[in-house]
Design a protein that fits this description.
Strand 8 and strand 9 form a beta hairpin. Helix content is about 35%, strand content about 25%. It contains 14 helices and 18 strands. Strands 7, 8, 9, 10, 11, 12, 15, 16 and 18 form a 9-stranded mixed β-sheet that branches. The protein has 2 domains: about 140 residues, Rossmann fold, CATH 3.40.50; about 200 residues, Dihydrodipicolinate Reductase, domain 2 (2-Layer Sandwich). The chain binds NADPH dihydro-nicotinamide-adenine-dinucleotide phosphate (NDP). The site of NADPH dihydro-nicotinamide-adenine-dinucleotide phosphate has 34 residues, from helix 1.
């Protein structure tokens, strides 16, 4: 199986398309479809120039299930890789069920008028995919995605159980602009302005957004402030690893970013409720997205590194008491730009999307049903990370985190 339909033509889709083209033994035919076809054509041009591989392009509104089914049938795709926006997840899952093909995405479904980041909408498809004999993989980016697979790998090879888990996402890159988000601004700002929430002692602990700050020395990057946030994988990890006593997610932000978001939030520009402006309904956050820099244009400007990983503590497999491991990847913005023409945030999401798709294409992840990444065997995915541009390291720490 090697025919794939990639939906979306943003920064993440561009990286995934390039990396798929670099693996022609796995991906024999690639079609790239999105709302704005010219963006697909631009990516196809870059893929051709860098790899010599031709990819097909098409215009598609992914909310139109019948149009997606027709395109799947026409291209003969056996897997849909959804790199559009979370709002398209359910329509694309419906199209996959109708057309009888597998599904993969990088972000959980959300109705546009909510910012709750819940898996319930997609988990409700479990029985439909199982009965159809089809596989749906949820969250095959870096976080969720690689960090979830890291946790499973630690549990398979180092720890009997995970008692504490901290996911640490550091972007030490600088694009020189006063304010820009490094992936879709609407999704990014919805995430960071939502209340922080972490899992502790069997329940959720909520705190106001961006109020818990810790300074941490990231390998390859140095000291940065990271903030406690809610992130969707906390729900799936605490569900699938019921032994977890505490699970938290941290992301680094510079002071300038925090100041901009605070002002934008205070003046109402991050709102997701429509307002009437000169007789038209507009959603403030969508308008803000329209005036902010496009993340896929940041590649040439961004310098520095990302470091994303997990710190996990639990009883060691070797019976030597409790142990703590830090497992992470360091990725260089400029190296990513040289390789595929994108910055590291798109790269660290697009490469795992390609690897997840490869796991399905190769039949390694083909259990019928709807799966989060931590539910699947980690080994082949971890091997491919090493060879496809996201090598990882694992180190034992002297004890559990003290923050
Ligand atoms: P972009 O906004 O750059 O790209 C989204 C693309 O989807 C655009 O090309 C857009 O088209 C297209 N699109 C939107 N609506 C539709 C529609 N109805 N039909 C067809 N195409 C549509 O986003 P990114 O590339 O930055 O992010 C892509 C996804 O990756 C997002 O879901 C994001 O949340 C996720 N992500 C996941 C991460 C992880 O680690 N798991 C990290 C970063 C991102 P148009 O150009 O016409 O607007």
């Amino acid at each position: 199986m090697g025919k794939v339909l990639v939906v979306g033509a943003g920064g993440v889709a561009s990286v995934a398309a390039h990396k798929m083209a670099m693996n022609p033994d796995i991906f024999t035919e690639i079609t790239l479809a999105s709302r704005t076809r010219s963006k697909c054509d631009a990516i196809a041009g870059s893929v051709k120039a860098r790899t010599g591989v031709e990819i097909r392009t098409a215009g598609l509104d992914a909310m139109d299930v019948a149009a997606t089914v027709a395109l799947i049938r026409e291209t003969g795709a056996e897997l849909v890789v959804n790199l559009a926006l979370p709002y398209q997840d359910l329509a694309l899952m419906d199209a996959c069920l109708d057309a009888g093909v597998h599904y993969l995405d990088t972000a959980n479904y959300e109705p546009p008028e909510e910012a709750k980041f819940e898996y319930s909408h997609q988990w409700a498809y479990q029985e439909k995919f199982r009965q159809a004999g089809l596989t749906a993989i949820l969250g095959s980016g870096f976080d969720p995605g690689v960090t979830s697979v890291y946790a499973t790998w630690l549990k398979k090879h180092r720890l009997e159980a995970i008692r504490q888990l901290d996911v640490l996402d550091c972007n030490g890159g600088d694009n020189g602009l006063p304010f820009a988000t490094n992936f879709n601004p609407e999704i990014n700002i919805r995430e960071v302005t939502a209340p922080a929430r972490h899992w502790e002692a069997g329940g959720w602990v909520e705190s106001p957004a961006m109020t818990t700050k810790v300074r941490f020395d990231f390998p390859g990057v140095g000291e940065k402030n990271m903030y406690l946030m809610y992130h969707e994988e906390l729900e799936s990890l605490s569900t699938h690893f019921p032994e977890i006593e505490r699970a938290r997610f941290w992301m680094t932000f510079g002071d300038a970013y925090i100041n901009h978001v605070t002002v934008l939030q205070n003046v109402g520009m991050t709102g997701i409720e429509p307002v009437i402006y000169e007789g038209h309904e507009i959603v403030p956050l969508q308008f803000l997205k329209a005036v902010l820099p496009n993340p896929s244009d940041l590649g040439a400007l961004t310098k520095g590194k990302t470091c994303i990983g997990d710190i996990a503590t639990g009883p060691a497999k070797d019976g030597a008491g409790e142990k703590t491991y830090y497992i992470y990847n360091i990725c260089d913005h400029e190296e990513c730009y040289r390789e595929v023409g994108s910055q590291a945030v798109a790269y660290t999401t697009g490469v795992p999307a390609m690897i997840g798709a490869a796991m399905v294409a190769k039949g390694i992840w083909r259990e019928p049903g709807v799966w989060n990444m931590e539910q699947l065997d980690p080994d082949a995915f971890m091997d491919m990370l090493m060879t496809q541009g996201l090598p990882w390291e694992v180190h034992e720490l002297s004890g559990p985190v003290n923050f």
